[in-house]
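Notes from hallway chat w/ T.B., transcribed later so I don't forget. T.B. wanted the structure written out for a chain they're using in a teaching module, and asked if we could keep both sequence and structure tokens in one place. Agreed to drop them here.
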Amino acid sequence: MGELMVIRHGQTEWSLSGRHAGRTDVPLTEAGEASARTLVSRLAGRNLVAVLSSPLSRAMRTAELAGLTGAVPDPDLLEWDYGGYEGLTAAQIREGRPGWDLWRDGVVPGDAAHPGEELQQVAARTDAVLNRIRPLLTEGDVAVVAHGHLARVLTTRWVGLEPSASRILGHPHPGTLSVLAVEDGQPVISAWNVP
């Protein structure tokens, strides 16, 4: 049985400043490109049978720089649509909504380009991705290049937890690798947030 490599895209100006970048297509910084290149050695020797990526350029570029040729863009791997919180930091959101917690309180609707998304909608997308990936793991490893909050939801769904349990996982740093596997027939997190 193969393993699922979950890669968070490299650093962007927005990830550096803590801004919520859901559907806004923010490019990688030079540091983000450098961290993506370091993934080449971590992924060397893997029997990758598929590579899926968020269609946003920061994820597709990370895949390219990490040596993951043939990455297939998958819209189900887009980051959470933050709606009216797109581009804001958590501190800015809490100025108008004290005590706000993404996992508990969600987002508010935004404009037509950022209507917003509920946690259950994000979970439904990750469930669809996992349903497509599981059969592939019988042939080898699969790599997914995505985003921080999406990766947390995907991981909790992998181990069979409710999507709100994603809060227990630390936010993966840009350009990091996590590994999901199966041990004794049970899904496990074998590595998290590895630089």
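Follow-up for T.B.: The two ends are 24 Å apart (CA to CA). Might be a good example for the class.
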